[in-house]
Input
Amino acid sequence: MLRRVGFLPLVLLLVVFAGCSRCGKEAAGPADSPRGVSRYLPRTAQAAVVIDDLGTLGEKLARFQNLKVASFVAQLQNFPSAERYVSAVMRQVGVDLRSRKALEDAGIDPKRGAGAAFLGGTQAVSVIGVKDADKLKTTFATFARTRLGATEEQDTKVDAGRLVTFNRPGSTTPLLGMLFLKHDLVLLSAGASVARLPELAALPEEQSLAKEPVLEASLKRLAGDRDFHVWLPGGSGLLPAGTVQGITFTGHIEERAVTLRADAPWPDTQASLAALESKGGESLTGWLPQDSFLVARYRGDPAQLDGVWPYLAGSQVTRAVQNAGFDVKTEVLDNLKPGMVFALSLSPTVNLSSGMPDLDLRRTNPFRFVNLVALAEVKDVAKGQATLDKVPGFAGGFGAKVEPTDMSGQKAYLTSYRAGEGAHFALSKDGKLVLAGPRARLESTLASLAQPAGAGPVSEDLKAVGKDAALVVLLDLRRLSDAVKALPSAAWGIGGFAIKATTVRWLDATDDLRAVTLALSRKDKALQAEVSLRLTPAPAGTTTTTTPATP
Output
């Protein structure tokens, strides 16, 4: 069973030890140790990972063992629980990363953080704090001997400090190396990159991550707590030249959420970033259906979306609109107020007997599976109605048929295309534009607009998400799960009772995953994003304390 996780230990040793000083500030320690471990991470790296406190992060990650989904995944690997699976990995690593005491007993100083830089190809280097050099050398010697078969050890004095390497008998090529530096830090590497340790130890400070101006500016903009951050420089590796100067990610782990934030200096004109400047606007979410599992809200100025709508509409619609001489910006976008909303809910008549649907809308009608409602408010009702009257004239250009009709005194437009019903639309007398499908959803939405707004589908625990962001997307996993569980067996086709039972077991195993949220905005001259996985905490009385795994 342990062979199943045998490939993980070396990865954990060289990648999990990825960090820097506390929150980008100088690490606690000697005054002549500037910027902590980030001082030894090269700016030329293709990517770098930094952890503020290795002990704190390990203790937080240990909480995930109590999630149902973690135990479910562990059982797929033939382990009885997530705790047993992680403990098996920790025994092979030789250091229990979940326990601050275990890290210290291994000779590591967790509070100094840790860092890793990926240099290209298979080369990487890590930096960690040293609490006891002899214990740390023993820890890595044990790992090298038992996991890599490297039983021979070389201990050499070099200009930068003390270089210790481990190799197999009869070989002069080290498999693992560690260079003990001043300031109680050690550089770690494996394979071909061991030869680069002295070079990295002598790295001038201005060539290190500690002096990366784009990263420093991004971290200042990314306010809030963080446990780690990741730096991807532009012009190499994952970000080719001509894209952005670099992207900075920060991560924060809490009991109820795991949040990843990103910041990137905007490479285009500031005018092109104006679409992500929040303008507020009346909230229309109170008129969205209560059963919506996906809700999006755009609080920017719709007039700034002129360069975006062709990507959203697709090439066929864009060509038809342009060929008709229809100006989307003046006819539509300039007449919309900030505050547009969009929602999806599971269709009560969905049929899953044929498996997952083809996502090509030309072949599959989406309203067989979901219901759609989108709402916006227009500035000029007469102009808005005149614009809608023009749509039937050019809809045929993108393969659709749009026909005006009367719904209880309300003028509406019904859309159809080769795959069936399309998205229907209407403009209420008080200026609320509705796009909905199928027809029953349009009718119910128009009826609800005649009433005061309700509470809306967004749960109380999610209402504060991205309150200052221009674009917010909320995926309520709990509501989606409940909707799937409520489907009748007939929705699953022949043998549906068995398929439904299996699906419900999967959903029950993941019901501590509460929601996924996304927020997009601008800050100064940068684009910022926040993605968060919301969790349902373990029941009261459940312990997250982990007994360190004995190597």
